[in-house]
Every structure is written in structure tokens, then in C-alpha cells.
Amino acid sequence: MRHHYTVKTYAELRSWAVKFASDNQLHSLVIFGTPGTGKTETFTRALEDAYLVPVKGRLTAFQLFQMVKANLDALFLFDDTRRILKDFECINLLMALGEHKSPKVVQWNTSTLTKKQHKDDDDNPNEAITNSRIVLVINKVEEDNEDLEPLFSRSVVIRFAPSKEEVHQYVAEWFPKNKSSREIYEYIGKHLALIPVGDVRDYTKSLTIYDMNWKEQLHEAWTGDEYLSAALKVVNDPTVLPGKPQVDAFARLCGGSRAQFFRLKRLLMPLSYGPVSQSHQTEAGSSKRRRILLM
Predict the structure, then answer these.
(1) 127-130 and 104-107 beta bridge pairing
(2) CATH of domain 5-160
(3) pTM value?
């Protein structure tokens, strides 16, 4: 997505959460990135002392309006609410909440509310005057959805792109310290290079099934997608140069196409972010780009 910031560490992500909690000028924030990296949990913990209203799951536009009206001036955290972002009326309400002004007027422009639903001290039940602000935590941005563009243009948009080592270090902050947990943590740490994408659920699920064949389950999850595993193997091979050599190697391994390789390559999470490399620059003016190390 155009016009977004890229954040690669949890420390940076927490700093944005703190800024959102304290900066009344930050009206709308969108965080997107790989699922299973603790985006929502990081924000929830950072905002635990704020007037925070979490929103998750299916919600109609009218239910959203009622929630806004019942929680005036709250901070709203929308957690991967894909259905809401496909509802044009919900998007309009979110745009009203994301306006760069305070207070803001959020209106329900229908006659849905009846006199029986009115409160005696409620002059206009179809209107909410509020200082609320919003943060949307999503896994993927639907760039072809034109209805979302006005919402995102009002927002500060952040792509959260941690490395596998960063996710591993993040898990260490809260993962239990008993013997079984340490075994799981150390085992995953030794196999980070084999993992296409770091996922905190690998740790928690392994702990849940610790008395079962948890190692086998992990390897099945990591290697279950033949094409993704092939893409990872190619990218991890230092003898295969980027570009056509990688595409050819991918085709030999699994029969996949060029388009398929580059789509899967974008999904892979780097092991770590290394220093700037001058050896694989592909475009003029890109000498300051960071090289992503996958080994």
C-alpha cells in the first residue's frame, strides 16, 4: 500500500500505541501485517490504562453507531473486523470517527430509532458528538477496494513487518518460564531458518499439546505448503542469485511459475534485518535500502 510507514520492531510498535493513547491529534491509525505477530495484544497492553473499547467480529452499521454513542470519547480498537470493512455504512461511520477534528459528529441518517428508544435527555438519538479516535488492526489491506481509500487517506497507516528473530524475542517477554515452555522456545529458536513466517501461535499451541507429538505438528505446519517451502529453500540458498536463477530453481523444486514464486517470496518473513548491502542493488537510487537476510 502507498503512503505507509514500515515498523520492524515491537519497541517501535509500542511507541505508536503510546502515541495513539496520548496524542489527541492522532485520530485514526491503521496497523496491518502478517497474522500471528501479536499486533492486537501489543496495542491492548499499551492501552490498558486508557478508555479502550475493543471491537471484534461481526457488527452491523447500526450496532457500531450504538456502540459509539454509548461510549463517547472512548478509544476504539477494531481487531481484524473484515466484515466491517466490507460494509459501506460501517466505513462511513469509521470515516466520521477518523476525521481530523474534535469534537466530531457521527450521524445515523435513518429513522431506525423510534420514540420509545429515545432517552428523555437525548435531544437527537441519531447523532453522537464525540472525541473518540480509532485504531484498526488488520492482517491485509485490500488495495483494490476503492471504498476504503477515503478511510485510509484519513489515517496514519503502518505496516508491521518484524523478522522471525524479532517475533522470537517478543515471545520471550511473556512466554512461561517452566521446563516445557523453555524446551518449546529453544526448539523453535533453533529452527527459525526453516520457518516461512514467525507466528506466536506456534509457541502457544505447542504448549497446549506438549504431551502429544508437538514437534511433529510444528514441522507439519512449517513444511505443509510445498510451494511456500520451496520458495523459502530457494531464497535461503546463498548460491542462487536473485531474479531468474531463483525462479528457475523454484520451478525445478516444485514446478511453480514465476508469478507464483514472487507472490510467495513476498509472504516470507526475514530471519533478521541485516546491514545495508551494495551487492544486490537492482534500481538506480536504491543504494540505501536494507538487504533482508533470510539466513
Answers:
(1) antiparallel
(2) 3.40.50.300
(3) 0.83
